[in-house]
Amino acid sequence: MRAWGDRVDEAQIEGALIKALGSGVVAESDRAVVFHDMCLLRDRLQHLQSEFPPRTLHAVAIKANPIVAILRALVEQGAGLEAASLEETALALAAGCPPERIVFDSPAKTVAELHEALRLGFVLNVDNFAELARIDEILATSSTASLIGLRVNPMVGAGSIGITSVADGGSKFGVRIDIERDAIFEAFARYDWLRGLHMHVGSQGCDLDLFVRAASVIEDLYTEITRRFGAERVAFVDIGGGLPVEYTAADKPPSLTEFLAAMSAAVPSLFDGKVRLITEFGRAVHSGCGFAASRVEYVKGFADHELAVIHLGADMFMRPVYLPEQWKHRFLVCDCHGRIKRGARKRYTIGGPLCFAGDLVARDLELPAIEPGDFVVVRDVGAYTVSMWSRHCSRGLPKVVGFDADRDNALQVLLRPETPADVVQFWGGAEL
User: Fold this and answer.
1) What pTM does this model have?
2) CA-CA distances (angstroms) from residue 92 to 65, 98, 253?
3) Same domain, yes or no: 312 and 382
């Protein structure tokens, strides 16, 4: 089993790309392909399952990577799935996830969606007191197998990337501990079906101290609720996800071991196995498992650098394109046969295919000489890339291929590429 922080390395990238090209899994017509290491994915989940308390439900965030074949691989290994919309719960069910392992977290659940979630028996994290009142009305005339918890904003502040932080005063999520603490206890007194607590601090850019301080707030609530309402009242504590990952050498995220050591030391009653934990890791599970390889269509020379035009841009790399100072990736260049290119380096900008000037995937990269027909490889793209696909310019989703070291590096098409006919149908037109 590979270490928690391992990612698809250069040799594995080269081997997978050469095999895919040689076998025809990647065809001449494929402008860009995303690869996912299924063996490493299973290793990541196995680390979580072996290092957390045994009863922990690891509900992997669907929004990080919603490809059903990938979700199914996680479910088959015992994972749950975290859904941020009713549509994502449908993806979870399509992947074979039992309803009791589906965690539904949307902050905008409709009455109809709540009826459906309660009917199916999902774990339900409630965002606000009005939502609690809606559920109470539903349960007045029906029963449910759902476990229901309340999302609490622990108010510990934002990380270094504000738009992915959710534990400060500007967050749209949850009930604020600083001004609604008494109301939280009143809710537990009023609703005997309220059985859990949920927190989340954010995603990339959140340091270990934020997790520890947030968990301490939740532990304090857990302790007081059990004191007031009995030791069995809280059936689960959902600590969310957001464990950061390493995209560049400058990133120094905590390891899983460091995360668990800090959390179990700070909040021992949440990690002693008496209450069931739920996690919602997405980026930390998927990111390092994936890489993208795009054919280079053109190379244009400028006075001080060159521009390589590829077939992935802001359609797949929305955050790196629009927020390049906060979101970066590592790059390789492979020749037309998939072999990694070495040698003297030149300055490049990597341009995407979309019709606006800012569609630049990376700027000022030092890379080996790039020629039309080569592949530009973008590393660590297993999370928040395909799942954030943009329809601007109406380009189709790329092919996604799984490769599996446990099965002699077997290749499997996990998602076929969209055709022009698929895109026409998406926009409401008849098939071509």
Assistant:
1) 0.95
2) 12, 8, 29
3) yes
